Amino acid sequence: MITNESLTEFKAVFKDIQISDEDDQHPLGNTGRVIVFPKTEQEISAILEYANANKNTVFIMGGGTKRGYGGLLEKADILLSLAQYTGIVEHNPGDMTLTVKAGTSFQEIQTYLAPYKQKVPLDPFIPEHATIGGIVSANDSGPKRIGYGSARDNVIGLRMVYPDGTLIRSGGKVVKNVAGYDMNKLFIGAMGTLGVVSQVTVKLRPIAQYESILFVSFSERSVEEIRAFASKVLDSMMEPISLELLNPSLAGKLTNINQYTMLISFEDVKSSVQYQENVIRSIVPEKTTLRSLSQNEATSFWDDFYHHQPNGLVNIPTTEAVLKIGVVNLEAIKILQEAELTADACHVSIEAHGGLATGICHLTIRGAAEDILSAIQHIRKSAKKNGGYAVVKHLPFSLRKELNVWGEKTAAHFLHEGIKQKIDSNKILNKNRYVGGI
Q1: Is the pTM of this model over 0.90?
Q2: 111, 125, 184, 282: which is deepest, by most CB within 10 A?
């Protein structure tokens, strides 16, 4: 633990790095006694080496959007902020790869790539604040995962700083990199518990010439009809970039129609998109409403969509939670149906959407604290019953202490513990931030 004396020493050792005191209590926790803002990889390494030698705990923060995601300690000794560690390291337009510093926001990356008509094929929430390091550490993804994949699919190389300050590299800078173990996957999704992501190399793809979204709203809440139509789309030769089902609450908020609404998005050349739109129009069930958006209107809708969830940057009076649920793809329909029943039973509001090709659902729950905890338990039981899992992506610190946000340990948990012990024997880095209190 950093004392007043050791804090003075810390500031003296790193006098060339911006350091500020953090005395305020943040409702989401995951803060630090001091915040340090390194600008180089060498400074990150030196800070971690010092912390490890003195057994000072360290939390990592990029843009702060995931501050409410895991964590059972309210405050570490040091909060390592990557807010000033930003920028493009290397871009190879011909190879369609990009290497970027971990603190760079996702929107900044996409803006840089736009003149080259290229983009990073990921779609995180709050893109103007979500950093590439945070996206990788959480293996974040959005409703376009069916077409884009996740961070695990698109990262081809990483530079990491181990808890003792050692710099390592995994993967490479070319797409066809098949030598040795795929060590990238060890760190992607580890929530920063094994090291600080320093640089990320990702695959790029061309920006699509044309984009559209079709909204199919079901006037009757027939689960069988929704399932049958989704199966028909999935069994066809069409290639939607997303196939997402919105529950009535979220559909009402985003489309002004309070009905189960299927969102089918396409990105390609204009003729291909329009051909696939016409196929959808020919197979939609009766008693449904079909609407479409294209180009700028579609972009505007996605902008609203990626900002509807609460995040670590916004503090509002109401208590909020976000659940991420994974089930077999079409079982997402049952999860959304269960969410409606739970909202009534637990006296909460729930905005939910689920990927009908991926089975990944996100639920935003608002209400009184005890009602939210009850709702989470109800939905978690439903997910387990359907062979899936439910983790809490956003929750105030006071409630995270009362609930296991990651759910039950798996049979492979001892492997996670062994890896953590080998890499971070002093357990200084993002302590208690991951599954099973790792």
Answers
A1: yes
A2: 125
